[in-house]
Design a protein that fits this description.
This protein has 149 residues and is an alpha/beta fold. It has 5 helices and 6 strands, in the order βααβββββααα. It starts with 6 loop residues before the first strand and ends with a helix. The chain has one domain: Mannitol-specific EII, Chain A.
């Protein structure tokens, strides 16, 4: 899956000023609500319910929160770098500073898994993650994410 098909320039949030997991997910939910037909509270509640099933932190400062929604017709992706790393509950115990949010239609099992696999594979690339951390420009972040996928 090519990320440019699900990630847009306005879905890049460099230097998000969140200071907690809840705040980061709320800020991402607000941006996602601006782009989708979903409400920010609905998005936030689905993301928090998913976190209660198991942390979406994959380690090395990266997390991929995700949720499924009946009202969505297509996959939507959002990416944020955090101004300061936050505790997220990742298995390696390291704080998170790169967040890749995925919102998918409830019926799109295959697309959901493809998107998760693509993002997970991409964010396992340590040199790429370091470039993302060092970049504060949305256009440059978008270029890094979409040319590497």
């Amino acid at each position: 899956m090519n990320l440019s098909s699900i990630l847009t320039m306005d879905a890049i949030l460099p230097h998000l000023p969140a200071i907690s997991k809840k705040q980061a997910l709320k800020q991402l939910a607000q941006r996602a609500a601006d782009v989708t037909a979903l409400g920010d509270r609905e998005i936030y509640n689905v993301l928090m319910a998913r976190e209660q099933l198991g942390c979406t932190g994959m380690g090395a400062g990266v997390c991929i929160p995700h949720g499924r929604f009946e009202a969505l017709q297509t996959v939507h992706a959002f990416f944020a770098t955090l101004a300061k790393p936050i505790e997220f509950g990742a298995a390696d115990g390291k704080p998170v500073d790169l967040i890749f949010l995925l919102l998918t239609p409830a019926s799109a099992n295959n697309d959901h898994l493809k998107a998760l696999a693509t993002v997970s594979r991409l964010l396992r690339d340590k040199p790429l993650c370091e470039k993302l951390r060092a970049t504060h420009d949305a256009k440059a972040i978008y270029a890094l994410l979409t040319t590497e996928s």
